[in-house]
Specification:
4 helices; about 240 residues; five-stranded antiparallel beta sheet
Length: about 240
C-alpha cells in the first residue's frame, strides 16, 4: 500500500519573499515593454527582425541572459495563431495589430508578459486591443472568488470572458505556472500544470516543496472574420 506524501507548508515570510521576487521580475518586464513600445514597435520591419532587436535590447539594457520560452512576435493574421504554432515571418504593416509575448528571466526569477499594439487608427483593431485588459481583469476577479478552482474551470471562465467581450478565445491554454527558473514541469504533460481543459487539480494546491504555486493568466482574443487577434498576459496570483 502506498501513501501520498503531503507537502509541508513553508513559512509565510518565505512565501512573501517568493511573491516579491516574482513581482520584481514582472516590474522589470514592464520597463522592458515600455521601451519596446516607445522605440521599437513600427511598420516596415519583419517579425523576426523585431524579435532580434528585442533580444539585443534585453541583453544590452535590461540584463537579460536567457528567456524561459521562445520570443513571440505576431502581426496581422499571425495574431490568430496560438503559442505552439510557428507561422511564416511577416512584414509589419502601417495599419497593423501585433503582440509581443516574452518570458525573460531576471536573475533567478521568471517573468511572462504579453501586450498588444496597434499601428494606425483602425477602430476595430483598437477595440480589440482595448478589450484585452478588461477581460483579463474580469477573469481574475472570478478566480479570486474561488482560488481553489481547477485549471479547467478557469479556462472555461476565460473562454466565457472572451465571448462576453464579443470575441473567441484563441488558444487551448489560458495560462500556466511561473516561478524560479526553471519552474515546475512534468515532461510531456501539457495539462496538469496549465490552465486548460482536462486539468482537474485545484490551482491552490501546494507543490512538492510545500510552496504556493504561482500562475500566469493569459487572454488571447481573436476575431476570425477580420483575421486579427490580441494577447495580454501577466501574473495572476501576485499583485
Amino acid at each position: 500500500m502506498t501513501t501520498e506524501t503531503v507537502p509541508t507548508k513553508i513559512s509565510t515570510t518565505e512565501e512573501h519573499e517568493r511573491a516579491a521576487y516574482l513581482q520584481d521580475a514582472q516590474d522589470k518586464a514592464v520597463l522592458l515593454f515600455n521601451e519596446i513600445e516607445r522605440d521599437y514597435i513600427r511598420h516596415g520591419i519583419s517579425e523576426a527582425a523585431l524579435s532580434k532587436e528585442i533580444h539585443e535590447l534585453g541583453t544590452q539594457r535590461h540584463g537579460i541572459r536567457t528567456h524561459w520560452h521562445k520570443r513571440v512576435i505576431r502581426s496581422g493574421p499571425n495574431t490568430l495563431q496560438p503559442y505552439d504554432e510557428n507561422p511564416p515571418d511577416r512584414i509589419i504593416q502601417p495599419d497593423d495589430i501585433l503582440f509581443v509575448d516574452l518570458g525573460p528571466v531576471f536573475e533567478a526569477w521568471e517573468a511572462d508578459f504579453g501586450r498588444t499594439f496597434v499601428l494606425g487608427d483602425d477602430p476595430v483593431k483598437k477595440k480589440l486591443r482595448d478589450s484585452l485588459e478588461p477581460t483579463w481583469n474580469a477573469v481574475k476577479a472570478r478566480f479570486m472568488e474561488n482560488p481553489d478552482m481547477t485549471g479547467e474551470e478557469l479556462y472555461d471562465l476565460a473562454c466565457e470572458g472572451a465571448k462576453q467581450a464579443g470575441y473567441e478565445f484563441g488558444g487551448v491554454l489560458a495560462g500556466h505556472l511561473v516561478g524560479s527558473f526553471p519552474h515546475e514541469r512534468i515532461p510531456r504533460d501539457k495539462i496538469s500544470l496549465y490552465i486548460t481543459k482536462g486539468n482537474k487539480e485545484s490551482m491552490g494546491r501546494l507543490n512538492a516543496q510545500g510552496q504556493k504555486r504561482h500562475w500566469i493568466l493569459e487572454i488571447h482574443l481573436v476575431d476570425r472574420a477580420r483575421q486579427i487577434g490580441g494577447f495580454y498576459e501577466q501574473l495572476l496570483t501576485v499583485g
